[in-house]
Amino acid sequence: MPAKKREHDPTTGKKNKKEKRGELAVINSDLRDEAVQKGMRDAWQRKESYTNGDIHLDCEPFPHCQITRFLQSESFVESLQAELLQLNFNSKSNDLYKFKQSDDLRERKEHYISQIRSVIFGEFRIWLSEVLQVDLEATVDISCAKYEHTDVLLCHDDELEGRRVAFILYLVPPWEVKDGGTLDLFSTDEHCQPVSVVKSLLPCWNSLVFFEVSPVSFHQVAEVLSEEKCRLSLSGWFHGPSLPRPSRYIEPPVPRHTHIPRDESLLFEWVNEMFLDPRYQARVQQEFEESSEICLPGFLQEEKLRQVRSALQSSEILWERKGPPNKRCYGCADMQNVPSCVQECWELLSSESFFILLSNLTGLRLHYLCGDEEESENEDGKNETENRDGEGNTQASASSTDADTSTTEKKDKGPPTCVGELRRWMHGDYTLLHDSVKREYGLDLQLHMGCAGWKSEFGGFTSYIAHDEDEELLTVYPEDNSLALVYRDKDTLKFIKHINNSSSSLLSSQNTAAFYDFSFNYYE
């Protein structure tokens, strides 16, 4: 009777030598071919396309390479996938992304993970250094990402000190364009700002994509649309000397304007009469001063709301896509060509009487007729100080001087101003945090329309966070005909969360593809 092959014994924990050693990771043999290596190196230096076997180099919109069969052993890849799926994944979500990520894989001891780590940062790094003619460090920077339904990574360039080459190894089931999750590459303009997606790479089992991190390497992971498939990948960066980066482009500021001369009859025609009652205004102001934010549902009169809501879906309005996509993506109305009721609503929010109403609702000094309580208190303090003697008088005088300086600074600002947009929000729209935003005090106003039944899991909400922190301070959800007011200080930033595919069913049930908001910022 032939001897049985020695198997793993659960009672002793022993394995045969082959099983204990495990299978080794071996990269595609084409990468070891000297002719292929020379062809890649020459093409990369000349920024030309190159194809040989499983290797495909393309230089548009920026140099990137796809190796369609990166590892020779299918069974190794399957075992690696199984090992990765056993890891703990943490949900990650902010303005830029929503997906699940493992802990850093630098210290993981699992056989297949340690093998792939050794291959990528060993043999493959040496090959890549030769192709790019760059000395890449043996730094291990690698993690595993899992993208499922509605997960996304929006437009960014990957630039961070020391990053030279980005890579992604895909471990996905058979994937189709309709599943989403493509790696989208952006063209750029003369300011090195992204413009639009010009190439989409479909994730493919056991394929590896790499590209040089540069001022124009803008890319994104498109939203995963499949409800069944998981987009699993290993990704990271090779470190080396960074490429030269041009001066950061500063967008020209959007012009602000003072109020437009419209009398208070406009308020009585448009605004719910409840908000025009001085006693109610006083209650709103007290609540706003305590929390610096408030939502006022049912703000517009119903008839006016119906008119505007209907007009916003009119083909008469021209919607311009606002970018660049590393900062924002939504539709903005050309206010030179809108229905009359939409124009009137815009004028309402820009009018002198509305500035006064906002002053009464918030206590902010948005009109010269509205007293400045702080200034009045400072004046009272000053008068009281002048009637005192001694050391206490000297200290109070210094305090009074500081207050006078603050008041003078306020007066030096000039008259209150505002800037506004009429925005259309559809599946795929968002805004991102970015450095070029001027940090200053201001009152944010949003008046949403056409979003009845909206759910938080759709995205589209406005999130306020503290500067340089992940802490969320406040969330404003889209609510039909609700006026949201938020007073923002210099250390508070905001973004609008990416609107995902889950919203499509609600919008289609309402025979529309979008909701809308009037978005204004007011400055004292």
Short note summarizing the structure:
It is found in: Cytoplasm; Nucleus. With 524 residues, the protein is of the alpha+beta class. Helices cover 28% and strands 27% of the residues.
Q: What do these coordinates show?
A:
The chain is α+β, with helices and mostly antiparallel strands and 524 residues long. It folds into 2 domains: 29-239, Sandwich (Jelly Rolls), CATH 2.60.120; 257-368 and 414-523, Jelly Rolls (Sandwich), CATH 2.60.120.620. Helix content is 28%, strand content 27%. It is built from 12 helices and 24 strands. It has helices at residues 17-21, 34-46, 74-85, 111-132, 265-270, 278-291, 302-312, 340-350, 352-362, 373-386, 390-412, 504-509; strands at residues 50-52, 55-58, 64-67, 89-93, 97-102, 142-147, 152-156, 163-170, 183-188, 194-201, 208-212, 219-221, 231-239, 293-297, 319-322, 328-333, 417-426, 430-431, 442-449, 462-466, 472-476, 482-488, 492-496, 514-523. Strands 1, 2, 3, 4, 5, 6, 7, 8, 9, 10, 11, 12 and 13 form a 13-stranded antiparallel β-sheet that branches. A hairpin with a 5-residue loop joins strand 20 (462-466) and strand 21 (472-476). Helix 2 packs across helix 4 (111-132), helix 6 packs across helix 9 (352-362) and helix 10 packs antiparallel against helix 11. The protein starts with 16 loop residues before the first helix and ends with a strand. The relative contact order is 0.10. Mean pLDDT is 89; it is low at 1-21 and 375-411. Its cofactor is L-ascorbate. Residues 396-406 have a biased composition (Low complexity). GO terms for molecular function: iron ion binding; L-ascorbic acid binding; peptidyl-proline dioxygenase activity. Keywords: Cytoplasm, Dioxygenase, Iron, Metal-binding, Nucleus, Oxidoreductase, Vitamin C. It holds the Pfam family 2OG-FeII_Oxy_4.
